Amino acid sequence: MSEKLVIKGLTKKFSKTDGVENINLTVKERELLTLLGPSGCGKTTILRAIGGFHKIDSGKILLDGKEIQNLPPEKRPTGMVFQSYNLWPHMTVYENMAFGLQIRKHSKAQMKEEINEMLKLVRMDGSEKKYPGQLSGGQQQRIAIARALVLKPSLLLLDEPFSALDAKIRGQMREELKRIQREAGLTVIFVTHDQEEAMAISDTIAVMRRGYMEQIGKPEEIYDNPKTRFVAEFIGEMNFLEEGGTSFAVRPEDITLIKQENGPYRILQMMSLGHYTQAIVVDNKGNEVKVFMEKDEARLFAADDCVACRFDRKQVFAA
Amino acid sequence: MKRLYYGLGKRKFLEWILLAVFLLFFYGPLFHMLTLSFAGDYEYPDAVPHTFSLKWWDYILSKGQMVESIGTSLVLAIVVTVVSLLICLPAAYAIARYSFKGRGMVRLSFLLTNAFPKMGIYTAMAVIFYKLNLMGTFVGVVLVHIVNTMMFMVWIPSGAFRTVHIQQEESARDVGASSMRVFFKITMPMAWPGIVVASLYTFLGSMEEAQGSLLIGLPNVHTMPSELYGVIMSFPDTAGAVFAIILLIPSILLLIVFRKYLSAEALSNGFKM
Ligand SMILES: Nc1ncnc2c1ncn2[C@@H]1O[C@H](COP(=O)(O)OP(=O)(O)OP(=O)(O)O)[C@@H](O)[C@H]1O
Ligand SMILES: [Mg+2]
């Protein structure tokens, strides 16, 4: 796979503490890369710098091998979708979609065909004559994505496009996006602060913290081998424990409970979460440990049982 | 009357009376003026003329200076509206979009032009206009009118611009539109109701402005309202009525054509600080 986007030493500071510093990032062709991190860590800043909405302080942005950091947004072959207010309410869906094509001087017939095709791809065919105000939030975001895609952008930039939608629709949109990306062979940078969403759709995740990249890798890599405590805490569930003076971390699913009279832990609570069960156990000092287990296994335990824990996979982080 | 009272019910009946009084109060003078303008024989305290004719219309329309003032007023109102759009829209946009030091002051200063006694401002302008040789000129009158309507022209469109989200402009840039194109195809159309309302105010305000036009415009520039002063002073009521109705026509036409924009919403957007 060839390199689509290369960012070298990108710095954009709003003040001494706010902004991003010395960002290096490579996105491969047909890859969906997610920028993941807590609020205010600089995800939007990077995305807007790529789209041309922030003038950067220093660094280079290469798209398809060409430097784009000095071009205005309208000259960049990127397509951006914001969290909300993407569509122009005084234009119909068709006019919204046609706006960019008209600037590119496509013929009427060609335009119609391209728009139809895109609306089908996002499953919104038949809505051409509607105004944005007549669509639901999820439908509006589909149109916004279709409007960006109809211009065949070299790189699609999505800034928390589903975060204004409710949980169920968000899940559906996520799957749709993955399908569209696969079918159209798109290269996408997706911004979210929702680690579950990131795990679900990404080929690569870049975990950010306070303006820099903490770890970049495949979702399972980041989940199984978080490089820092911050990443371990941010992605998935993690127990931080201490045993004989050394501290270590264990994922809840990497712990096996063993029934044991006067064992060091006591079960505080058993909670079924659908396809698996979560147990919270507590030691005599009051430290709580979270444990995931299969439903069948869970039948063997009940609250107030005394147990021992076997840690199948420990991880140690530098302080 | 009794039948009406019981037929409608007490509440409804009172509402009708209220409406009737309101209509009389509102449209009574207008209607009176209309009948007067078509009067033939009329004596002062009477409500209705004895005979009707077009003689006062003929009279007014045969006075060259008065007919001329109709043209002057229309041209003036158009020029004032266009020029103040050109000046105020960019200012309104800047105030809506960019936060700069003293933005609050700038907004307030527009309010101040309307807080001062009008005559004071006009006199101060007259002093400057003498030096600049703008007294008695068309340009001078245009300037006076613009000072008058500046507040509406900045505040209302500025409020309308603020209802356009920055993302809506940015996505237009993103799909390839230059910043000019974004302004004319996205921002302006979305702010259109506010711009229309402000232009209407400016146009109508210019049509009926008299004090400033009198002070700055005379003796060379005669607008309809400044002529109206003269007509009222030196001709019978009936001539004044004709002239007042002529002055009313463009306003009514405009209000009918643009009535769908005249919502309370467009106005209230303009006054959110
Ligand atoms: N236009 C701006 N002017 C000044 N400071 C800004 C600007 N945009 C962002 N910042 C600051 O830069 C930092 C990074 O902001 P950014 O919007 O990139 O965060 P984010 O990761 O997208 O957060 P969120 O998940 O909340 O959207 C924040 O501290 C923010 O306050
Ligand atoms: Mg953000």
Notable traits:
heterodimer, A: 319 residues, alpha+beta, Rossmann fold, OB fold (Dihydrolipoamide Acetyltransferase, E2P), 9 helices, elongated, B: mainly alpha, MetI-like fold, 13 helices, 78% helix, binds magnesium ion
Quick structural overview:
The complex is a heterodimer of chains A (319) and B (273). Chain A is an alpha+beta fold and 319 residues long. Chain A is built from nine helices and 17 strands.
Walkthrough of the structure:
The complex is a heterodimer of chains A (319) and B (273). By secondary structure, chain A is an alpha+beta fold. Chain A folds into two domains: 3-231, P-loop containing nucleotide triphosphate hydrolases (Rossmann fold); 240-311, OB fold (Dihydrolipoamide Acetyltransferase, E2P) (Beta Barrel), CATH 2.40.50.140. In chain A, 28% of the residues lie in helices and 33% in strands. Chain A has a six-stranded mixed sheet, with helices on both faces. In chain A, strands 13-17-14-15-16 form a five-stranded antiparallel sheet. A four-stranded antiparallel sheet of chain A has the order 2-1-4-5, with helices on one face. In chain A, helix 2 (93-103) runs parallel beside helix 4. With 273 residues, chain B is mainly alpha-helical. Chain B has helices spanning 2-8, 10-37, 55-62, 64-97, 103-115, 118-131, 138-162, 166-174, 179-208, 211-217, 224-234, 237-257, 264-270. In chain B, helix 2 (10-37) packs across helix 12 and helix 7 (138-162) packs across helix 9. Chain B is globular. The termini of chain B are far apart. Chains A and B meet through strand 6, helix 2 and helix 4 of A and helix 8 and helix 9 of B.
